[in-house]
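Data card: per-record layout.
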Amino acid sequence: MVDAPYTIKIAPRAAKEWLNLSAKCQRKLIKFFLSLEVNPRPEGVQKIEGMTGLYSQEVDHLRVVYKVLEQQIIVLIIK
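The structure for this 79-residue chain is written out next.
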């Protein structure tokens, strides 16, 4: 297996919200996160204007806000 070019980190606030999600929602988010490790700016993702490196994507009924750094993606909010 080839290493992904990016790693995913979950911010404390997002980790707290993660605990309240159903297993089904968590599985969908994991699939999304794994895709971000390869391509952090997939088609359909929304760049947050005025905020360097911040993106937003709806996954199921959840809004995921994340920041792309050099080789790291930090998930800031899952709501």
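Known properties of this structure: The CA atoms of residues 12 and 64 lie 14 Å apart. The first strand starts at residue 7 and ends at 10.

See the next section for split statistics.
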